[in-house]
Amino acid sequence: MTETLLRGRLLTFHREPADGNDTDAFTYIEDGALLLRDGLIAKSGTFADIAAQAPLAPITDHRPHLMMAGFIDTHIHFPQVQVIASWGAQLLDWLNNYTFPEETRFADEDHCALMASAFFDQLVAHGTTTAVAYCSVHKASVEAFFAEATRRKMRMLGGKVLMDRNAPNGLRDTPQTGYDDSKALIERWHGKGRNGYTVTPRFAITSTPEQMEMAQALVAEHPDCHVQTHLSENHDEIAYTATLYPQARDYLDIYESYGLLGPKTLLGHAIHLTPREIDALAATGSHPVFCPTSNLFLGSGLFDNAGLRARGIQSGIATDVGAGTSYSMLQTLNEGYKVLQLQGQSLHPLQAFHWATRGNAAVLGMEDHIGTLDPGTEADVIILNARATGAMALRTDRATTLAEELFVLQMMGDDRAIEEVYVSGKPSKAQRPRQKLADSDARTCKAEPVI
Fold it and tell me: Of 42, 249, 320, 417, which has the most beta carbons under 10 Å away?
């Protein structure tokens, strides 16, 4: 048995705060403590109480910083780490010019392993302890993703994208190979350690009806797996999708008709929705995922969070790297605040930090495991420093409430504000030297436009 006691200012959520005065929604302890034991949070409370119950546990004192549950990212693309911040295109051109050429490189196992290590380094550096990732069409990319997650004992979800049309030759599977590879990966990784498989038809444009039927079969055979895909991100995407599935009532009806909707379904973007689609989301309990930095970067549109919430629809929030421009959930909350401001909607800092922790855990149906600092949950903890930069320190000097401090972190914070990250109870934010890529790795590949 291994025990560690963390001391600091403790903040954890029990439900979403209605506003800044909803103090029953969270626990804040000025001198708090967490007792970590064998990868779990054994006890949580005041330092005086917890220290008295574990007098022999070594103490790591993180005062005056905040201790919170690790951030959860519900939509991110593992193979796009080297095309983040690629200039100048909207969705379909961006896929053709940057994403698809980059993802062809993931046919190489060594490249997959190198990128997996770099990808997880970035997640940890930015305080993200759980993510739901799109891998490439190649089985090797998923193997590398889950192998690295297992090595680090991280709670990760992901899956091989299914795409059998409208992509370069090196990025297409077939309905049968997509099914077979996914089936084998589920058997190898799902439920092993902290890994969870996600059935991943990339989006309707890159899957034929035959492949959608295979995705439907995978979901029926593995109901404990999550499902992820993209929905209504861009007007041109929606129009093209309609030509490929002319029988569908709307974009969401494609996924609905193949039995892919439900409480385990994550639908990236979901910006331009019809009233019928909103009805279907509410009826099935499916989850849109708000990707603000990506939506702004690609000029896709504004996510109607308040409208969806009014229908009882629970949405995730995510970085969407690499169209998203930062791995930081703090910066994601920053841009999310601005997107909502443009529509006359609000995002209180307490609501924002709930969303990136317990809120996203609830979207995944995993709030009993991650997203809080409750005893019995997994010991994924981040230490936040609201004085990480000179500008932040100047502003924090004038902060008089917890909410003000959180708002400084939300609007000005990034990886520099992440003081430490505990994954399964172990400190994990050690700075590692950047690996130099071989010339062959550094070259930019080209592929013909396909969409």
Answer: 320
Which residues does residue 159 pair with via DSSP β-bridges, in sequence order? 134
Of the pLDDT bands very low, low, confident and very high (cuts 50, 70, 90), residue 447 is very low
Amino acid (1-letter code) at residue 179: Y
Q: What is the DSSP-derived secondary structure letter of residue 160?
A: P
64 and 30 Cβ atoms separated by less than 8 Å: no
Whether 10 contacts 28, CB under 8 Å: yes
Identify which of 199, 361, 190 has the alpha carbon closest to the alpha carbon of residue 265.
199
Encode pLDDT of 182-225 as tens digits: 999 999 999 999 999 999 999 999 999 999 999 999 999 999 99
The pLDDT, as a whole number, for residue 309 is: 97
Q: For residue 44, which of 451, 410, 358, 381 has the smallest C-alpha distance?
A: 381
Contacts of 150 (CB under 8 A, 6+ apart): 192, 193, 194, 195
The answer to whether 189 and 181 have CB atoms below 8 angstroms apart is: no
CA quadruple 334, 352, 159, 379: dihedral sign: positive
Q: What percent of the chain has pLDDT over 90?
A: 91
The structure tokens 């970590």 sit at 36
Nearest to 251, CA basis, from 268, 263, 68, 114: 268
**Separation of alpha carbons 381 and 363, rounded Å:** 19
Which residues, including other chains, have CB under 8 Å from residue 394's CB and lie 6 or more apart?
none
